[in-house]
Amino acid sequence: MAAAKLSSDILEIIFSYLSISDLRNCSLVCKPWYKYLNDEDNDVWRFHCVRKLAEEALKSDLLKNVPTYKAKLRAFYHAWNPNDCSKNMYVKSNGFSVHRNPIAQSTDGARGKIGFRSGRHCWEVWWEGPLGTIAMIGLATKYAPLYCHGYVGLLGGNDQTWGWNLVDNFLLHNGDSQGNYPTVNNAPKYQVGERIRVILDCEDNTLAFEKNYEFLGVAFRGLPDTPLYPSVSAVYGNTEISMVYLGPPLDG
Amino acid sequence: MLKLSETKKRNIKSSEMPRSYACDKAVRMPMIKLQSLEGEVFEIDVEIARQSVTIKTMLEDLGVEDDDEEPVPLPNVNAAILRKVIAWCTYHKDDPPPPEDDENKEKRTDDICSWDAEFLKVDQGTLFELILAANYLDIKGLLDVTCKTVANMIKGKSPEEIRKTFNIKNDFTPAEEEQVRKENEWCEEK
């Protein structure tokens, strides 16, 4: 009984000794503990955030759209997986950007650390360097290959991937073009640095995109009930792509 | 302080004099009196008491002198707990001051010394009262070790196991619990 009534000063000290997995269990114990852990900027979250994230990521504006310590930590847990990308790519020391090496005749992709099967999820992706001729953004299952020879639409080129080519504004899945997107005439071309929001709805099985806070429409429907991972594929040498997980979409 | 010559003037028998006057002040340790919630008075060495930042501050700010007859009231601490706190502070009186927490280091819980581990083999009620007393008296070392002990009782347990350990009622509805579980699913990943 006394445990449920501890002040936040004391909860802070006790929780500061626990792992993130233990903290998750604590937030399910009772409402007072949940309330303390729901303060996403408290010292317990700050401590874990500072220890796990690269200082350069915390100091730059990379994470500007995930303002709280807990949200930044969550973004890091969903970031590009350094062990799950093409051999011609590596995740930079900031933890959130992937770099494609200048290898000729190669298309390379990367996957996020966590795949989604339920709920609604939103993340932002942007190119930090040139797109080249093919720059795909979308989803991949765990089984999708992240490398192939030549310069192709890797993301969308098979039934395990769904991609939007930011260069020619075409959607691709299973190797078939799904039409242009967004469906407006003269859609503006992608500018390097522009953050695109990807919105995955696992209940509706749809994928949509947003640019400059403008919803561009549903791009893919009928997504399968299997874990789907944030993914990109690229062809341009030395280009870099950043991805930051935001959480559930804020509904208008 | 009464000088011996004065006692003669006042016709006080030396055997009736308080013991503290019986020896030279220079070798006597300065003492302070602490009074628990119930009014019980404990006399302890000032240096031991100063491990409590609360008491240390009172001594400095309020100019409470050692040898004052007036005990320092601690209405938030009962006698049984105060006795235990004094025992802990006495054992730890020569400890170096605790280091500032290093943000870059993982906080360990496997470094509780065996004396403290034995000392903290108490019922939960006492453990939490010690936490509250250490917090009120601002004794960092005791607060850290008691909180570490609670943290060790939480580690690796499911929410239901934690509730059972501490006799906490589940005040979530099933829907609320499901939502919190989903929100924090990512915390399970390595």
From TrEMBL, chain A:
One of its GO terms (cellular component) is synapse. Residues 58-250 form the B30.2/SPRY domain. Coiled coil: none annotated. GO terms for biological process: proteasome-mediated ubiquitin-dependent protein catabolic process; synapse assembly involved in innervation. Residues 1-48 form the F-box domain. Pfam families: F-box-like (PF12937), SPRY (PF00622). Pathway: Protein modification; protein ubiquitination. It comes from the Eukaryota. Keywords: Ubl conjugation pathway. InterPro entries: B30.2/SPRY (IPR001870), B30.2/SPRY_sf (IPR043136), ConA-like_dom_sf (IPR013320), F-box-like_dom_sf (IPR036047), F-box_dom (IPR001810), FBXO45-Fsn/SPSB_families (IPR050672), SPRY_dom (IPR003877), SPRY_FBXO45 (IPR035784). Belongs to the FBXO45/Fsn family. This is F-box/SPRY domain-containing protein 1.
Automatic annotation (TrEMBL), chain B:
One of its GO terms (biological process) is ubiquitin-dependent protein catabolic process. SUPFAM superfamilies: POZ domain, Skp1 dimerisation domain-like. Keywords: Ubl conjugation pathway. Signal peptide: none annotated. CDD domains: BTB_POZ_SKP1 (cd18322). Pathway: Protein modification; protein ubiquitination. Pfam families: Skp1, Skp1_POZ. It comes from the Eukaryota. InterPro entries: SKP1, SKP1-like, SKP1-like_dim_sf, SKP1/BTB/POZ_sf, Skp1_comp_dimer, Skp1_comp_POZ. SMART domains: Skp1 (SM00512). The keyword Electron transport does not apply. Belongs to the SKP1 family. This is S-phase kinase-associated protein 1. It comes from Magallana gigas (Pacific oyster). The lineage of its organism: Eukaryota, Metazoa, Spiralia, Lophotrochozoa, Mollusca.
